[in-house]
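Submission sheet (multi-component)
Chains listed below:
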Amino acid sequence: MRCARCQAPLEHGDIRCPVCAFPSEVVVAGEAAVMKVLRCPECNAALAYSAEKQNAACGFCGCVMKVEEPIDPIETPSARLPLLVQAGQAKASLRRWLSTRGFFTPGDLATAATVDTIHPLWWAAWVCDAKATVSWAADSNAASRRSDWAPHSGKHTLEWSNLVVPATRGLSAHETNVLTSRYDVSRLEPVPDGAAQVEQFDVQRSAARKTVIEAIERDAAERLKGGSIPGNRFRNVHVSALLEGLTTRRLAFPAWVLAYRFNGKLYRAVVHGQQSDVVIGTSPISWAKVALVGLGVLVAIALIAVAVRQFG
Amino acid sequence: MEAVQTFRCEGCGAALSLRASERTQVCVYCASPNVVAGALDATRQEPRFCIPHAQGEKLARQALADWKKKLGFFSHQGVRGARLENFKGVYAPGVLYSAIARARYDVSIGEEYYVTETYTTTENGKTVTRTRRVKKHEWVPLSGEYEAYATDLVVSASSGIPNEELEAIEPFDFRGLRRYSPGLVAGWTVETPSRSEGDCLGLARTELQGVVDRRLREFMPGDTFSDLRSTTRIEHESAAALLVPLWVLALKYDEQKPALRVLINGQTGKTSAKVPWSWPRLIAVAVIVLVVLAFGIAASLVQR
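Outcome: structure written.
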């Protein structure tokens, strides 16, 4: 069933549309008015609503009648993406990544680091498809005169297909940004019962929808900066998205989380669960190399200063 | 005079008289909490949604005690000294409104820039020339559109509760919104709508315009703006009958005056009332201020 106003699919328990708040049911014509008394199913006494119990309750036998509860469950993934990278491949990817960390990392990092723990994790995210009329107003450098900024406004229709909105608390926003683009969301598998490695969303449905809509508006602002708003420097980018047909899937994305040790200290890395060449994490810095380069720069500056004084 | 309908108590069959503004009644003979099922008035729908009372009397008692503590020095002494009792839990009729708002606006946007100005001043008895950076605004006209959903607007459908009084105890937490069911109101007083649907719609549209105006001010780019003018087209309106939980206290603080209505949000405990001033205190303070000023002026005249 879809919302009559914005075409977003309605889920079981939605008494209003989660996007535009349109009531989800058609009102039927009222019947002739009669008096009704709610009866306790246990002792047949009359029931009254108890604010403390948040339900109609019987004052005689204490029975609480289950009036319809608001349905706002904790979100759970409906499916997960298959883990295609094996543990061995993940470790090898980590070694390759450590060997390419640049000049300022210790020279023996790739060989001396030891993997402490490695475990698979399916991190939670919403995957959204939507269409929206986005009205925007912003300042940019285009057409600016005396001030650095000039105001602009506009309206565009944007579409999203498979926009990933991370819900994970286990991975940072930077980590999910790097991982997100390389997943194949067309291949899904069911989530096994009680799978401990599959992260739960940790938010209720009502809060989830707010997060998703905010993420879409943030993404809209970024996309508008990519060409719709004139100029190449922006500020005060305000967008309002009138969403249509927002559909949201709750999926779990595979990754390997590794802890490796170097010189007694622990560092963390995440390897993509479907593309082993995507690795993100922290690595040690060789302070000796940093000091050496710093010293070299200082010496060079000193030599230039001397040369300028001698020959300038 | 308010119309009265007669119903049979479902508990004992006694005749119950209900005013047009009531939907529930506890039978005086068998104490059964009766609820009217179906439409009381052919032109009105049954309530569609209900925000249930969150707590019992404890919430109202605590909210009133907190409200009384915050009454200022200039509040009427009858209110400050009143006993806060005989408050009543009710479900008041409201309308839950939402719509698509399409606004077109024209505005003048101010973008800051700085200029270096040269000026002369006197330092140590000499005239010197100095420079300073001065902030100025470049004003640029801007026209545009703003389109959004406006949701969760509640207006009072009771002619006894002015809409601004209901606004004063909002917001309600819509996560607690439930489909109306007699089980949520049995045993409580439920008022039926007494404001016409057209009037409710008018109030809701005014509230929507206020929301759009506020959002438009936040939507403007630039460092500042002026002359914001807008016209709003409203589409796909939805107005659903809603019951909101209130605690009401009619406070008799002065025999000569009508009772002061104190409203408490039955979900959050937010309390509001238009508390009258204590004129004796206001006059006393004004007189003291005037006397002090007069003394000050007199003293300065004597010194001269």
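Remark: Chain B has three domains: 1-36, 37-106+140-273, 274-304.
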